[in-house]
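Hi V.,

You were right to ask for the full record rather than a summary. Here it is.
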Amino acid sequence: MATAMVLGTQWGDEGKGKIVDYLAQKADVVIRSQGGNNAGHTVVADGQSFALRLLPSGILFSEKTCIIGNGVVVNPEVLLEEIDGMVKKGVTISKLEVSTRAHVIMPYHIRIDEEDEKLRGDDKIGTTKNGIGPCYADKINRVGIRIGDLMDRDVFYQKLKTNLELKNRLFTTYYNCEGFDFEEIFTKYTALAERIRPYVKDTEYSANQYIKEGKKVLFEGAQATMLDLDHGTYPFVTSSNPTAGGACVGSGVGPRMMSNIIGVVKAYTTRVGAGPFPAEQNNKIGEYLRETGHEFGTVTGRSRRCGWFDSVVVRYAAMLNSLDYLAITRLDILDGLDTINICKGYMYKGIELKEYPESLNILQDVEPVYEELPGWKTDISGCKSYDELPENARYYVERISQLVGVPLGIVSVGPDRSQTIVLHDVF
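Predicted structure:
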């Protein structure tokens, strides 16, 4: 069984897109199973940069089948814009599949997202305002509109009519703003449906069939473990389950079909928006990491909070996802530092914590326990093998592996596909 899964182990922006893009070279199928167009990532291939939001990273290979699974929430307009952008850059979109069971982000979801964030005031969650959460909420409330509904004009008509009556009442009475015109949305989305129709398929069946046929299937994660709705730093999380279990639910592929679960780890730590971040560095180190690493959001453009690598976070993620290997990215960003710290534990009121705490109040008050390691002060971006890395760079990634308890699988020394050192080949 030739499957592999790529997941984020921190708060997102770990470089999953680059790792998926690299592994997709040997894969036959790439499946996206959670999240929506809030999950922006950048892939660099042959010096050309591609910003992806909904499309799986394997889309750059015309011969690969790319699946948007049932667990993804799809904004049809954004999807088509992204497809058009890829085509303009010379990418052939011929083997894309979109699940009939994926839920559709409607304009009212985006409006609700915006209005809710306004009402929160100083207690903002930091949503991307793309309608992701409200769409998942409708899914849970069993009133959502799915891609399959969009394909049936009569079904879509009735579901939109019912939803819009309720949502417009909410806008006028609760949010004190204007609602939406039914005919305008219906006309627009029926047109979008026709453009999407060639890609729509019951992907649960096709995904399982590809695995049975012995094809190499790669599962692409969105967001990251610490943003998981159940296991992340709630409420500062996303509205889906970007963990290994979520990949099963969001693709229709059972857990016994999953192997080679790879946790992507940035060589330092970043986070966007509010929420606890024990290893954050609000100082020259944080600024160095932000500027050197160009740590600004692909979707929002917001600057990312930056800090030292936190092994407590990644150990927790390793447990939740049953990680087989680590893929350490952005190691080259640390090239200019004399010394590098690793957070190896937390102290709380004089007691060392053995587990990652659920309480945000505790997380805000923990004292990170750091271990100082020597830097390597050498440009590693041209290293083609593990042995070419400076001794201190090797010691750093090996220490991460030791603290997390997961073997090294990949080390990335730059953004390009060619700047990837593979220690364990999963395909």
